[in-house]
Design goal:
Blueprint lengths: L6 E12 L2 E10 L2 E2 L3 E9 L5 E10 L3 H14 L2
Antiparallel strand pairs: 1-2, 2-3, 2-4, 4-5
C-alpha cells in the first residue's frame, strides 16, 4: 500500500496581497526533505465542512522572479 506523503508549507517572506490572495516566498518540506524556495500565490478558502484550508500555487523559482517581474511590467507598456 502506498504511503501518504507529508507536505508542510513554510512561509519565508510575505510580499503583498493580490485580490485577497497572499503573494509570498516559501518552500515545501516533503517527508522531511526541504524543497527549493519559490514564489507562491496563497489562496485561503472554506471547505464545505466549514474548515479553513489553503492552496499554494507556485509562480516561479526565486532565481526566475526578477525575469517574471520584467515580463509583468511589459504588460502595462504594451497595453494600448
Amino acid at each position: 500500500m502506498a504511503k501518504n506523503k507529508e507536505f508542510i508549507y513554510n512561509k519565508t517572506r510575505e510580499l503583498g496581497m493580490l485580490n485577497g490572495s497572499s503573494v509570498e516566498t516559501g518552500y515545501y518540506t516533503i517527508d522531511g526533505e526541504a524543497k527549493p524556495e519559490k514564489v507562491y500565490l496563497i489562496t485561503r478558502f472554506m471547505r464545505k465542512d466549514g474548515s479553513e484550508d489553503m492552496r499554494a500555487n507556485a509562480l516561479c523559482s526565486i532565481e526566475d522572479a526578477p525575469t517574471l517581474g520584467e515580463m509583468l511590467c511589459r504588460i502595462e507598456e504594451d497595453t494600448p
